[in-house]
Amino acid sequence: MAVKIIESCVNCFACEPVCPSKAIFEAKPHFLVDAKKCTECEGDFPVFQCASICPIEGAILNSLGEAINPPGSLTGIPPEKMAEAMAELQSH
Amino acid sequence: MQLPVLNDTPAAKGGCAASSCGTTENQMDTLPDSIREKVQNHPCYSEDAHHYFARMHVAVAPACNIQCHYCNRKYDCANESRPGVVSELLTPDQAVKKTMAVAANIPQMTVLGIAGPGDPLANPERTFETFRRLSEEAPDIKLCVSTNGLALPDAVEELSKHNIDHVTITINCVDPEVGAKIYPWIFWKNRRIKGIKGAKILIEQQQKGLEMLIAKGILVKVNSVMIPGVNDQHLAEVSKVVKSKGAFLHNVMPLIAEAEHGTFYGVMGQRGPTPDELQDLQDSCSGDMNMMRHCRQCRADAVGMLGEDRGDEFTLDKIEDMEIDYQAAMEKRKVIHQAIQAEMDSKRLEKAEKAQQHKQEPKLTTRSVLMAVATSGQGVINMHFGHAKEFLIYEASPDGVRFISHRKADQYCGGDSTCGDGESTLQVTIRALAGCEAVLCSKVGYEPWEMLEAAGIAPNGEHAMEPIEEAVMAVYKEMAEAGKLDAVKDSVRAYA
After folding, report:
1. ipTM for the whole complex
2. Total domain count, chain B
3. Inter-chain touch B190–A18, beta carbons under 8 Å
């Protein structure tokens, strides 16, 4: 049982100090979770601390490999609107 | 502590007392000596000082505890110049080294700020370690910090220990319903809190922090981002509230929102205000509050005079090789600061005399005119039109000359001049000057001269090295004498 930080992490440091198990550490190219230490906050908090402060949608996965913060859930930008804007940019 | 009421006399327009030149001078004159002393060499707090002194930000604070709809935490582009953007994250040790290297090489640098790229107070260890070391090792540098306010009440005690006499709080609203349209979430007491509930907590923390700072005698500036249709109608209220609590300066900045920034506002097509809308709001707030109009919305790692960025000269690998004798640098800095101060004092006197003279002369009855000025500092017209990356905008009227704003000549991107929609840099510059009827610079080339004239903007290179306000007034009088100002020009306010 452990969460996972993936490559969309922007290295903002926000999650590292809020982890109750000190399972998160700075690494290249991005922060990582020590799966042996991660408790998914059980016994400490009712919600994942790292995923509750992480500003990047999809950057932290639960033990099933699902994004704890799915696209659109944090910024409020509907995913299709984001895709549209990015497609528009790339066509230039 | 309640600060005295500034600008409480009815003003002709925008808080500019009718008798003299320049809003900011009026404001400086009415500031109590204790505050004036604190801000007179701070380029971000004193419009006067920003012509002479430089600032720098060190990017030691990456984490943030809230999300704003105008911010995207993914962004890092060397060509971008706006808050929240940095190229190199520094450790406190690197930040101290960089600060001392800049202070030794740019002696006009008086202020070190921590402004992100996240929230400085959401990174208390890194932020305070930097402040603690600098207050010991470089005591001649003023320290300041900029925050969203969420963690401010808990940080006030620590801030007051570190030689920090200026704090900037970004306050975009005092109404949670407005706040919910700006802040999608905050991280508070181990939870992510969304919507109105989150905005309400943030607002309460900001106001509490503001009151606590004032009680400690720390100067507070309030920044607000003007977002048309979201908080534009609400910011006059914000201005009143923060002033009543003792903030001494309000800086209303325009929203920067482009789809390519990937921010909520950018992607959703929220527009920023036009220069006119911004000026109108600043003017409507200024009856109640000291307004700051010279903010350049700089990067969280900017170095140099406002409007310039010399960060490239002080990258980590470059400062690694610099040997800095800070004691010697401090001696040199002191001499230079004294000389600048003497120059500023004599110019202030001169300005006051000119204003007095202007008062004696028969008063014109002509309409007001906007003029653009190219300057690289020292309060004089000393820049070639083609070299200007930005222009200062002044308004001349029978009441005198007042500073209005700055406009960027090359937008927010310093990259390839052909990127974007294919407009030339010159065309972009001329478009940025829309609404102005003259541009004053040290020189203008032949090609821009013709294009400026065609656009109805009179190029003027006759006042090189003259003080800005005097030159603007001289050109205004020439225009009045030539009969150019009799008819009301509709296009003045047509910038969009």
Report:
1. 0.94
2. 2
3. yes
